[in-house]
Write a structure and sequence with these properties.
By secondary structure, the protein is mainly β. Helices cover 11% and strands 39% of the residues.
Length: 103
């Protein structure tokens, strides 16, 4: 997997836009996500939760929510985020993108 290198000036601009508490973490495999909270944009729904486990087929999220309306991603909370009752298994093949938010 290629590594993206950016200049200090670019990093400074990113921090200005996203906030000074920007946390940079190198992710080499999906297992590096365990213990962290992410938003997963999937083929049909958006899921948000802490990654509990990863295998070749799915990612298990605990304290998970389904997000029906995100609103602006810079908001402190989603406009419509509904808690799910149990751990959720998100099929890896349905994930289009994932990222951290301040929700």
């Amino acid at each position: 997997m290629p590594t993206l290198e950016i200049s200090e000036e670019t990093l400074k601009k990113i921090k200005e836009q996203l906030g000074e508490d920007l946390e940079l973490k190198e992710i080499k495999s999906m297992e590096d996500l365990i213990g962290e909270t992410y938003l997963f944009q999937c083929a049909r729904y958006i899921y948000y939760g802490e990654v509990k486990a990863v295998n070749s087929d799915y990612i298990t999220l605990k304290c998970a929510s389904i997000v029906f309306e995100t609103g602006d991603y810079s908001n402190k909370e989603a406009e419509d985020k509904q808690s799910l009752p149990y751990n959720v298994k998100v099929m890896r093949g349905s994930i289009e993108s994932f990222f951290k938010l301040k929700w």
